[in-house]
């Protein structure tokens, strides 16, 4: 068989598969519409988005994936299909710390897909307020970075907010050198957030030692700025590159390639168990000898693993603190429920901030 005939045969097979895919995706969308009709008939309009159900679907397709596409790629494809289907029922409005093109924007797209209404905010308090008021169904806020540690401002906002944690998103922070130019040698100025400049310092010293480094309010702002400036480049991520139509002169120029930021999804709904969950708790105890030991003992007695503990000043009494605990398992699981009951007894202040699916993507 000639090469041309072989290629034509393969293209015909691809066309046939594409037709099957289109029909199956359309059938899934019709099923989603029927689900919405059933929920509305039962008066459950607010229950259209189910974080635990989406997490279960993504885990299942990853477990059943036989390649050649990676598990992450398959899950990302299904995330977009689910996002499009949900938009037929009700488009979600998501608040996040803007502007568009930031890593938080990327976290929104990773968790909710592209068929959502974006609501970039000027500050983290604005994100919380938009969700509390009902203007947005959910918000996405940074909570910790693997190299920089916890985002204390986010923790402080949880102390006063009635919102719940409904999910988490892990975003690998890759910094790229973006520009309208084709060659690194053409770059005279580099714009970025101060933190990004610091995280790429070694690469910049070696590859652009004479370039002027200019700090801006965000990497997204840097990308927007260089889109119309000659001789300039920005340090930013994939989302900013796509949004502002910039070329990637160099990829992954960060000094620490494992740099990851964890984001939390905040909302008003409690999330049922998905099978692989976390629970985040806010507690406070008087400042006395052995207080923290007694606080954590119920976790050990019930074989519940704590994955994170952070403290913040209580702002009510000097030298007293509130603690944020991340533990494995859902708050409704028997062993977790028993541990939380013991924790509550040892606490002056106790609040379950949320039980939610572990990050899938």
TrEMBL record:
Q: Which InterPro entries match?
A: ACT-like_dom_sf, ACT_dom, Chor_mutase/pphenate_deHydtase, Chorismate_II_sf, CM_dom_sf, CM_II_prokaryot, G/b/e-P-prot_chorismate_mutase, Preph_deHydtase
| Pfam families found in the cross-reference section | ACT (PF01842), CM_2 (PF01817), PDT (PF00800)
What is its pathway? Metabolic intermediate biosynthesis; prephenate biosynthesis; prephenate from chorismate: step 1/1; Amino-acid biosynthesis; L-phenylalanine biosynthesis; phenylpyruvate from prephenate: step 1/1
Q: What is this protein called?
A: Bifunctional chorismate mutase/prephenate dehydratase
Q: Which residues form the Prephenate dehydratase domain?
A: 93-268
Q: What keywords appear on the UniProt entry?
A: Amino-acid biosynthesis, Aromatic amino acid biosynthesis, Cytoplasm, Isomerase, Lyase, Multifunctional enzyme, Phenylalanine biosynthesis
Q: Which organism is it from?
A: Acidihalobacter ferrooxydans
Task: Give the reactions, separated by semicolons, that this protein catalyses.
Answer: chorismate = prephenate; prephenate + H(+) = 3-phenylpyruvate + CO2 + H2O
**Where located?**
Cytoplasm
Any Gene Ontology CC annotation: cytoplasm
Biological process (GO) annotations held by this record are: chorismate metabolic process; L-phenylalanine biosynthetic process
Q: E.C. number, please?
A: 4.2.1.51, 5.4.99.5
Q: Does the keyword field hold Amino-acid biosynthesis?
A: yes
Function description: Catalyzes the Claisen rearrangement of chorismate to prephenate and the decarboxylation/dehydration of prephenate to phenylpyruvate.
- In chain numbering, where does the site feature Essential for prephenate dehydratase activity fall? 261
Leader sequence residues: none
PANTHER family xref list: PREPHENATE DEHYDRATASE P PROTEIN (PTHR21022), PREPHENATE DEHYDRATASE-RELATED (PTHR21022:SF19)
Report the residue ranges that make up the Chorismate mutase domain in this protein.
1-93
Q: Which residues form the ACT domain?
A: 280-357
Q: Which GO terms describe its molecular function?
A: chorismate mutase activity; prephenate dehydratase activity
